[in-house]
C-alpha cells in the first residue's frame, strides 16, 4: 500500500475522543489549540484484523475470570523468533499492565530506598520519575553527540559512575527514546559487561523494537553475545507502540532467570491481583500471527520514514545549522534548535508562534536539553508539513 493510500485508509482525527495527545494539551501546555506532536502514540487506526479480533471476542465470550491463553504465548514466542531471531521459552514470560509499571515493579522488587539506578541521558523521562518517586537515586550518565548527531556512550564514565555510586540497577532503552538510536551488539556488549563486572542488574525497555526505520538491525538485549547476559536481564516490550494500542494495558516482561522471575512475580502479587487481559491477548495473538497486521506495520513504517525525510529535508535546507539526530528507530525526531533559539524562548516559540505541542527537551534530562524538542512523526504527512512550515516561518531570524 502506498503511503498516500495508507494515510487515507487509517488516519483518524482524534480530537474529541479523549485522546491524551489531542485533548489533553492542558496537562502540559499553556494553550489547547496546538498541533500535538508530543505523546508517543499514532494517529492511525490499528490493522483491521486486530479490530475484528477484539470485536469477535467480545461478541462471543463473557468478560469473566480467565487464564492465560496458550495461543497468546505461542504468538509472542513466534514473533520474537521470526522478527528478531530471539528464542524464548514460555516459562520466561510474565507481564505488567504496561512497560513503565513493569519498570516500577522491578525497582520495587530488586532495589531498596536510596539505592542508585543508572540511566543514559537524554532518555524518556518516566525512567527518572519512576526511580525518584520510589526514593531511589538516579545516576544520569550523559551520552556524547558527534558531528553527525549520533549519540554514543563514554564507557569509562559509565563504569566510573557505577563504581562511585554503587549502582545496583541499569535501565537500558533500545531503541533509545528520544534520540532514535538502535544499539549495536558491540555497544550493548560493552555496557552489559560493565554491569556484569559490578553486579548491576539490567532492565531493557524494548517497547520500540518493531519500529526500525534505519539501517541498523534491532537486537534484543537477551541475544547479545549469544545470550551471554540473559541471566542478568529483565526485558520488556508491548505491542502498544508497534500497533498503536496503548489503551490495552498489557506488556510482556521476559525474565530467563528463574530466581529473578520468582522475585518479580512475588512483588507483583503484592501490588496487583488480576487475571489475564483477554482483550489484549486476543489483539496480540492476531497482531503477531496475521500477515495483514505485519503488512500494516511495514506500511506505517514507510509513512514514518517519509515524514522524517520530509522534515529533515525542509528544515536542513531552511535552517542549515539545525541538528537532527538520525532516526534509526522509534517514530520520534530529536531536534536541537540551539543554533537559532535561546533555551528560555523555546516554549514561547513552539506554543505561541509555531502553535505546536512538542515534547520539550528538558523532559528528557533537564536543562542541558532545553533547546531540543522531540516530535512525534506517526501522523499524516499533512500534519508534518504544517509543523515544518510553521517552524521555518518563526525560527528564521
Automatic annotation (TrEMBL):
Aminotransferase class I/classII large domain segment(s): 64-389
Listed Gene3D superfamilies: Aspartate Aminotransferase, domain 1, Type I PLP-dependent aspartate aminotransferase-like (Major domain)
EC number: 4.4.1.13
Keyword Manganese: no
Domain of life: Bacteria
Keywords (A to Z) from UniProt: Aminotransferase, Lyase, Pyridoxal phosphate, Transferase
EC class (word): lyase
Cofactor section: pyridoxal 5'-phosphate
Molecular function (Gene Ontology), one example: transaminase activity
Annotated family: Belongs to the class-II pyridoxal-phosphate-dependent aminotransferase family. MalY/PatB cystathionine beta-lyase subfamily.
Protein name, as recorded: cysteine-S-conjugate beta-lyase
Native organism: Veillonella nakazawae
UniProt lineage: Bacteria, Bacillati, Bacillota, Negativicutes, Veillonellales
Amino acid at each position: 500500500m502506498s503511503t498516500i493510500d495508507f494515510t487515507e485508509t487509517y488516519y483518524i482525527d482524534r480530537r474529541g475522543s479523549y485522546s491524551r495527545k489531542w485533548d489533553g494539551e492542558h496537562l502540559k501546555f499553556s494553550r489547547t489549540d496546538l498541533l500535538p506532536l508530543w505523546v508517543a502514540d499514532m494517529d492511525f487506526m490499528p490493522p483491521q484484523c486486530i479490530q475484528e479480533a477484539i470485536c469477535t471476542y467480545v461478541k462471543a465470550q463473557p468478560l469473566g475470570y480467565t487464564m492465560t491463553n496458550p495461543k497468546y504465548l505461542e504468538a509472542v514466542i513466534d514473533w520474537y523468533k521470526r522478527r528478531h531471531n530471539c528464542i524464548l521459552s514460555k516459562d520466561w514470560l510474565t507481564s505488567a499492565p504496561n512497560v513503565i509499571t513493569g519498570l516500577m515493579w522491578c525497582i520495587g522488587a530488586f532495589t531498596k530506598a536510596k539505592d542508585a539506578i543508572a540511566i543514559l541521558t537524554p532518555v524518556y523521562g518516566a525512567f527518572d520519575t519512576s526511580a525518584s518517586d520510589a526514593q531511589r537515586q538516579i545516576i544520569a550518565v550523559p551520552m556524547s553527540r558527534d558531528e553527525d548527531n549520533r549519540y554514543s556512550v563514554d564507557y569509562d564514565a559509565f563504569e566510573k559512575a557505577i563504581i562511585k555510586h554503587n549502582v545496583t540497577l541499569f535501565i537500558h532503552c533500545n531503541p533509545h527514546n528520544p534520540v532514535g538510536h538502535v544499539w549495536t551488539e558491540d555497544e550493548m556488549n560493552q555496557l552489559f559487561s560493565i554491569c556484569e563486572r559490578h553486579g548491576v542488574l539490567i532492565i531493557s525497555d524494548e517497547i520500540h523494537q518493531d519500529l526500525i526505520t534505519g539501517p541498523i538491525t534491532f537486537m534484543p538485549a537477551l541475544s547479545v553475545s549469544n545470550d551471554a547476559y540473559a541471566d542478568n536481564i529483565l526485558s520488556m516490550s508491548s505491542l502498544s507502540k508497534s500497533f498503536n494500542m496503548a489503551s490495552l494495558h498489557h506488556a510482556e516482561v521476559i525474565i530467563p532467570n528463574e530466581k529473578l522471575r520468582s522475585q518479580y512475580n512475588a512483588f507483583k502479587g503484592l501490588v496487583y491481583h488480576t487475571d489475564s487481559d483477554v482483550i489484549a491477548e486476543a489483539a496480540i495473538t492476531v497482531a503477531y500471527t496475521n500477515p495483514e497486521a505485519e503488512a500494516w506495520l511495514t506500511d506505517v513504517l514507510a509513512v514514518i520514514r517519509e515524514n522524517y525525510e520530509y522534515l529533515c529535508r525542509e528544515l536542513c535546507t531552511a535552517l542549515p545549522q539545525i541538528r537532527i539526530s538520525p532516526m534509526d528507530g522509534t517514530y520520534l525526531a530529536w531536534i536541537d534548535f540551539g543554533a537559532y533559539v535561546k533555551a528560555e524562548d523555546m516554549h514561547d516559540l513552539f506554543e505561541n508562534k509555531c502553535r505546536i505541542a512538542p515534547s520539550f527537551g528538558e523532559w528528557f534530562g533537564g536543562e542541558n536539553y532545553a533547546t531540543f524538542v522531540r516530535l512525534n512523526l506517526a501522523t499524516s504527512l499533512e500534519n508534518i508539513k504544517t509543523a515544518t512550515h510553521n517552524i521555518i516561518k518563526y525560527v528564521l531570524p
